[in-house]
Design a protein that fits this description.
This protein is an alpha+beta fold and 190 residues long. It binds iron/sulfur cluster (2 copies).
Amino acid sequence: MPGRVIKVKREENLGILQRLYIPMIIKGLAVTTGHFFRNMKGFMTGNPTTFVVQYPEERVDYADAFRGMPVLVQLENGNPKCVACGLCEFACPTDCIGIVPGELPDRGIERYPEIFDIDMSRCMFCGLCEEACPEEAIVMSRETEICTYQRGSLIHHKEQLLVPENLLKRRLEFLRAEYDRQDQPPEDSD
Ligand code: SF4
Ligand code: SF4
């Protein structure tokens, strides 16, 4: 939903005080001081005006629209839902997805990712891979913690990326509503 549009009126002929920025500096300090006392009062009276989370002991339940690290959807049989079509790889603006497809001759799904790597040090959590995927096989998770001492460990392999489908239900339902997708293909109108 678009935000509220605020039109900023700019003075064309600035006076000497405005050119020195003094009134604006004083105004800014007044606003900051006002917030300081308001928050201090709230703290002292037990009605906090600020929202504080004692991370990492406390966690926020992010909105379904939140985009964390991309993960692969894992089917009940343990296999990835991905059919190695490569669309996400193509859509990725940072070129951080690497897929090597393999063939499955004895199944309805003909291809699967033999290798599926995402370099999380380059991923910017944009979600374009998720949008491009025709199979709902790659989705944005709520995970954001990727601290490490070794850069190489930021390349997440298929086994690390797989997350059971039932744990991604909220995100999948959000996507279906967001993109007006149907769970089942529409019935033939003929
Ligand atoms: S979220 Fe964006 S940058 Fe990260 S893998 Fe997907 S498309 Fe690439
Ligand atoms: S777009 Fe989806 S199905 Fe295609 S390779 Fe990427 S994750 Fe797999």
